Amino acid sequence: MKLIRVLLCSLATAAGLSGLTAFAATEATVYKSPTCGCCKKWMSHLADHGFAVTGKDVPDVIPYKIDAKVGPKLASCHTAFIDGYVIEGHVPAADIQRLLKERTDARGLVVPGMPIGSPGMEQGNQKQPYEVLLLHHDGSTSVFASH
Asked: Using an 8 Å Cβ cutoff, are 25 and 49 in contact?
């Protein structure tokens, strides 16, 4: 993935475009506990899919969930902010990219809990079915993707 970005930036520069502006990675800011290993794995998953990820180790993630209006039933171990959207939990990068491409009118995406097999929660061949929920502005949710 990094090699592809380097090649694309080189092509953009050769074409007279700024590689940084033509192919800037979407920034993701992730609020997490300093000791959470699955959060770090999820951040690596995002980085592997082209996001520029900044981790913010905080003593308590709950205030970030409250600010984003993510209720306890929708909560997971980390809360991220990407291009005006809240991303709660182990949401796959492809679903985030789809949200950003479609510019869906919503607050963001959530994967409640920590389903085994979701990005950052891989445990061998074990996989638990889970849904990515679209968090609407009124606090309601609808299924955005099923995995």
From this structure: no
Other CB atoms within a 10 A radius of the CB of residue 107 amount to: 20
Can you tell me the distance from the alpha carbon of 103 to that of 81, in angstroms, rounded to the nearest whole number? Answer: 15
pLDDT, tens only, 71-117: 999 999 999 999 999 999 999 999 999 999 999 999 999 999 999 99
Helical (H) or strand (E) element with 4: helix 2-14
The first and second tokens of residue 105, run together, are: 């009118």
- Please tell me the predicted confidence (pLDDT) of residue 25: 84
CA separation for the pair 134, 109 (Å, rounded):
5
Distances (CA, A) of 13 to 3, 8, 26: 15, 9, 19
What is the dihedral sign for C-alpha 85, 86, 91, 93? positive
| Assigned CATH for 2-6+24-146 | 3.40.30.10
